[in-house]
Automatic annotation (TrEMBL):
InterPro entries in alphabetical order: 6-PGluconate_DH-like_C_sf, NAD(P)-bd_dom_sf, UDP-Glc/GDP-Man, UDP-Glc/GDP-Man_DH_C, UDP-Glc/GDP-Man_DH_C_sf, UDP-Glc/GDP-Man_DH_dimer, UDP-Glc/GDP-Man_DH_N, UDPglc_DH_bac
Gene Ontology MF term list: oxidoreductase activity
Catalytic activity: UDP-alpha-D-glucose + 2 NAD(+) + H2O = UDP-alpha-D-glucuronate + 2 NADH + 3 H(+)
Family: Belongs to the UDP-glucose/GDP-mannose dehydrogenase family.
Protein name: UDP-glucose 6-dehydrogenase
The keyword Heme is annotated on this UniProt entry: no
Taxonomic superkingdom: Bacteria
Natural source organism: Luethyella okanaganae
Length: 440
């Protein structure tokens, strides 16, 4: 099939390359000329494991092109809209201007039988509105909503082998077209659920709301665990054995960040309020509040660890991205903690395997040191805020020899407290028993 992907950011660039893997001819379109030039040279403008490989093979096959001119989408019969829906200035609702502009841009080129497929995360009701915009033009094209559930760090796999496909459609033909697009994934056994527009839109926002709730739930338990001397990681393991609950997304720590969960729960709340149903999701405000509190708890812990003030003390912040295997620093809890500590007068040195460039653009006031060993030298305090593999694998004995004081705050609960304590470190996790050896 001939496919266009409008918007070649994170979602679109991965989707365009993955569609070639699934056997289609694809043109990726974006208004950002620099981004298109990089993609056309098979160089992803961001870090995503596996993307360079599929981008290179897709480009070499001659079945993937990139363009800044939306007219190049005219040959395609299926048009994915994968543009961003950032937070509006007031920090609540979703800004739909890019989605609206993408549809407007496509309208002159749509032909009878074309299918426009929304992938962006949008407030419930958007698809129905856009379907009538398209129908109003009378060019015989229709709309489907096919939300994307990909995780950064696993985006390629999540796109080629998704857990499920959700089609929000207004007619059977649209579902048949999507079946053809995803034939390879369906043949591999991917379940597909065909719904109306509103349900498809709601699946996406409620999935993210649920994941955010799960994380804030365990972080709330971490707060209680701390007050009682209990250990939240053992609690999560025990809870996780209940198959109704499951262990995933029960890692307590500094909380969630990134370009999706925080903004999506706020946009969902705003939309529910617009619909007169604000009270149904009022708990999401608490989910957000618990989440933001974790960042403060890490900062407070740092102050406490340094005897009441961080002023003038060297604090090494391990990680600036919102999670490992990504260079994304959007709403990153790690960066927020680093900035807060700096604001309190600490001599903060932040390090990260991939995120320094993006972090520097946002927070040039921080000091960055890409070399982990150099960063750690003479530290008064180490704070692990993003659980990259090199930080999980740190040898407490070796690191202990180069720091000024052996104090570590493990804000992701990924280190073994016993090993670190045995190497002479003062170890503090989040909601973990604070000293006494735990029988296993
Ligand atoms: C999320 C959804 O998982 C994905 O389905 C959706 O399409 C986009 O939003 P992503 O933002 O890539 O994906 O990251 P995710 O892996 O969900 O992690 C989100 C945040 O939660 C990260 O900051 C992560 O560190 C944090 N997290 C995750 C926890 O704090 N604890 C956990 O147990 C799991």
């Amino acid at each position: 099939m001939r496919i266009s992907v409008i918007g070649c950011g994170y979602l679109g660039a991965v989707h365009a390359s993955a569609m070639v893997e699934l056997g289609h001819d694809v043109v990726g379109v974006d208004v950002d000329g620099a981004k298109i030039a990089q993609l056309a040279a098979a160089k992803p403008p961001f870090f995503e494991p596996g993307l360079p490989e599929i981008l290179t093979s897709a480009s070499a096959s001659g079945r993937l092109r990139f363009s800044t001119d939306i007219a190049d989408a005219a040959d395609a019969t299926v048009h994915f809209v994968a543009v961003g829906t950032p937070q509006t200035r007031d920090g609540r609702a979703a800004d739909l201007s890019y989605v609206d502009a993408a549809i407007e841009g496509l309208l002159p080129f749509l032909k009878p039988g074309d299918l426009v497929v929304g992938k962006s995360t949008v407030p419930v009701g958007t698809a129905a509105r856009l379907a009538s915009v398209i129908a109003g033009r009378g060019n015989g094209a229709t709309l489907a909503w096919n939300p994307e559930f990909l995780r950064e760090g696993y985006a390629v796999r999540d796109t080629i082998e998704p857990d499920r496909l959700v089609y929000g459609v207004a007619d059977e033909r649209a579902a048949a077209v999507l079946d053809e697009v995803y034939a390879a994934a369906l043949a591999a056994g991917t379940p597909r659920i065909v719904t109306d527009y509103a349900t498809a839109e709601l699946v996406k926002v409620s999935a993210n709301a649920f994941l955010a709730t799960k994380i804030s739930f365990i972080n709330a338990m971490a707060e209680i665990a701390e007050a009682t001397g209990a250990d939240v990681t053992q609690l999560a393991d025990a809870l996780g054995h209940d198959t109704r609950i499951g262990r995933r997304f029960l890692n307590a720590g500094v909380g969630f960040g990134g370009g999706c969960l925080p903004k999506d729960i706020r946009a969902f709340t705003a939309r529910a309020e617009e619909l007169g149903r604000g009270e149904s999701v009022v708990f999401l405000k608490e989910v957000d509040a618990i989440n933001l509190r974790q960042r403060q708890r890490v900062v407070d812990r740092a102050i406490e660890a340094l005897g009441g003030s961080v002023h003038g003390r060297k604090i090494v912040v391990l990680g600036v991205t919102f999670k490992p295997e990504s260079d994304d620093v959007r709403d990153s809890p790690a960066l927020d903690v680093a900035v807060q500590l700096k604001g309190l007068g600490a001599d903060v040195v932040a390090t990260d395997p991939q995120g320094i460039e993006n972090a520097r653009l946002r927070h040039p006031q921080l000091s960055y040191e890409p070399d982990l060993d150099l960063a750690l030298r003479d530290a008064d305090l180490v704070v692990l805020v993003t659980e990259w593999r090199p930080y999980r694998d740190l040898d407490p004995v070796r690191v202990g020899a180069s720091v000024r004081a052996r104090t570590i705050i493990d804000a992701r609960n990924v280190l073994d407290p016993e090993t670190w304590r045995a190497a002479g470190w003062h170890y503090r996790g989040m909601g973990r028993a604070s000293g006494a050896s735990v029988l296993s």
